[in-house]
Amino acid sequence: MEYAWIFWLVLGIVLIVAEIFTFGFVLFWFGIGALLAALVGFLGFGFVAQFLVFATVSILLTVLSRTIFSSLLPSGQENAILTGVDALPGKIGTVTSPSKGALNEAAVRVYGSVWTAFPEEGEEALEEGEKVVVTRVEGASIYVRKVKKLPPDWRQSS
């Protein structure tokens, strides 16, 4: 076990290089732990001390990096950019075909796409030319409410 530090050195280099091909950023910390264990072995400490340094440093760095990265990097949906259907709720559209049929089915243009639209429960039938706001999307249909008051159009001169 006199040359165990060579094992730790090789293991450390292999783990750090392997990290290049993975996404977890875990192998890097175990590689650092192995390199520190190699240093401890090179200084003459036994295999048990080397292993304890490897395990302690690797686990400590992994836990600390997860804690630091989770507080610095955004996670999940809170900062996600909504696209496609997910971006529709809250958008304003124009009724292109009035409500008809038993379900008050209408056609609404939102961002250039025409959608099958239904008024939300308690809303009146939709008339052509009315402005509506999308409240939800279900399948290939949208549910809308009439817009009571539109914000001023910035494209119009005063």
Model description:
The chain is α+β, with helices and mostly antiparallel strands and 158 residues long. It contains 3 helices and 5 strands; from the N terminus they run H-H-H-E-E-E-E-E. The protein has a 5-stranded mixed β-barrel with strand order 1-2-3-5-4. The protein is rod-shaped and about 85 Å long. A hairpin with a 4-residue loop joins strand 1 (92-100) and strand 2. The protein has helices spanning 4-19, 27-42, 47-72, and strands at residues 92-100, 105-110, 113-119, 131-138, 141-146. The chain folds into 2 domains: 4-72, no CATH class; 84-146, OB fold (Dihydrolipoamide Acetyltransferase, E2P), CATH 2.40.50.140. The model has no long low-confidence stretch (mean pLDDT 87). The chain starts with a helix and ends in a 12-residue tail after the last strand. Helix 1 packs antiparallel against helix 2 (27-42) and helix 2 (27-42) runs antiparallel to helix 3 (47-72). The longest helix has 26 residues, at 47-72.
In short:
With 158 residues, this protein is α+β, with helices and mostly antiparallel strands. The chain contains three helices and five strands.
- Please state roughly what percent of the residues sit in beta strands, choosing from under 5%, 5-15%, 15-25%, 25-35%, 35-45% or over 45%: 15-25%
List the quaternary state of the chains. single chain
Unreliable residue runs: none
Number of helices: 3
What strand order characterises the main sheet? 1-2-3-5-4
